[in-house]
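Supplementary Methods S3. Complex input for the calcium ion-bound model.
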Amino acid sequence: MEKKWWHNKVAYQIYPKSFYDTNGDGIGDINGVIEKLDYLQDLGIDIIWLSPIYCSPLADQGYDISDYYDIDPRFGTIADLDRLIEEGKKRGIGIVMDLVVNHCSDEHEWFKKACEDPDGEYGKFFYIEDYKDGDSLPCNWRSYFGGSVWEKLPGHDDKIYLHVFHKKQPDLNWENPKLRKEVYKMINWWLDKGIVGFRIDAIINIKKKLPFSDYPVDGDDGLSSIDNMLKEATGVGEFLNELADETFRKHDAFTVGEVFNEKDDELPLFIGSHGYFSTMFDFSAESTKEDISPENYKKAVFKAHERVDGIGFLSNIIENHDEPRGVSRFIPKEDLDDTSKKMLAGIYFLLPGLPFIYQGQEIGMENLDNVNDINDLDDCANANIYETALHEGKTHAEALAHLINVTRDNARTPFQWDDSKNAGFTDGKPWLMVNPKYKNINLAEQINDSHSVFNFYKELISLRKNPEYESTFVYGKFVPYKPEQKNLLAYSRVGEKSVMVIANYQKDAQTLSLPSKIKKVLLSNTSKTLDNSSFNGTEIVLSPYELLVVEMV
Ligand code: GLC
Ligand code: CA
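Predicted complex, serialized as structure tokens:
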């Protein structure tokens, strides 16, 4: 495999609005990120991905951009961002921005001009169709946040526009070369500024199956999931290749795609050595619909890595700003403690690919437990989740409980820095409730405790970066071990060294026969060391949720 500068990096996602507030307005800001750079450097982070901080009405928390060339005043200024890039560089940390170009905001000047003159140049930047009351819509697609993808064009009773997300996120028309050129210009402007790359939002959606047509209805709303259309849309690769040629490849940028629905034979095109992107996220466990048992988790993750074996790198996560907290999702509530959290950390962190940590994950932040009022939450996707649950026959209390379990707000509550008011996130009133668990789960309590979840993450990062093992963790072959043994999740990384990651993913002890003797214990979430008598032979007894990283003879 051709070596790339970013192969051995560890990345950290910041959701700026909830990271750290420096001016008391209750909203995290760029200066807050700058203040915490030393913290991130000490943790061992090389790349920071910032969720969007561009000018935005924040209808979908910045994923609705009204000016691609400026920073929203709530987050700071361009000068602040320049300082963040500089200060990051001094610490060996590169900044990755979020690239949201499937859609912009309805408050972007392109859309405003399109509303003024739908038949003019900017009308062609969007998907605008004629429509009179009583007509049937051009297609029956359901937007990701619920309801039809079509909305009346402001100021025009006889026109509608397409939005696959929120109605304040009109889709950009990638079929139009002028639009594409504008997008490339903007991307290069940012890369010239000194950011190291982009996380690429919702990118599969840029290719629509045209002309618009209906797909099989799959809900009581009479609409059809966008997925049905995306399965039939071909040709996104031509857009992506042009995009990469015109921008990323010229700068040797690091890019990570939010890609769903890609087909097997497209993988080398997406993340091969000369792919459209450097890497893409592995969402296989997150998007598992069934209850995610240890066995399901293992199957999903192993399959994902076997699928890209020899092709390219995945980016590994247990959560992000769109998902509930990983520890709450992947570990049964009654078993959730520091030991099981560390086990989950070790499992995903040492897989092939790039580990991403989402802010707060490193201190084991959990989902909200209860919320009295739906109005204490914020996300624009909530109303649809709640109403769909009611529609399916749930009571109000049940619908709220379901929402609390799945809402994206679980990941978006402020970072828990300490046990002071508002978890030390702000002196003002936080824009979103602080998770009441901050009294027990916060950084200040963990930073000097060598047994904390935080220090376990630190050890994981330094193990990955240990010069003796780095090439094995970065380039070593991934070999599942005894995948049929229930609630055991074990794999080898075989390169210069042979290392095994072994997890007992259950609350009971279990016995495991190893292929050879252990040479060295590299990391453990219990107090096991090699002197421990349990390592004499090739049979070991694993305690509940035990994780072991060992070098083999
Ligand atoms: C991506 C983002 C999500 C956003 C959506 C629309 O999935 O991660 O937060 O709502 O795209 O931009
Ligand atoms: Ca602020």
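The two ends are 26 Å apart (CA to CA). The chain has a mean pLDDT of 96.
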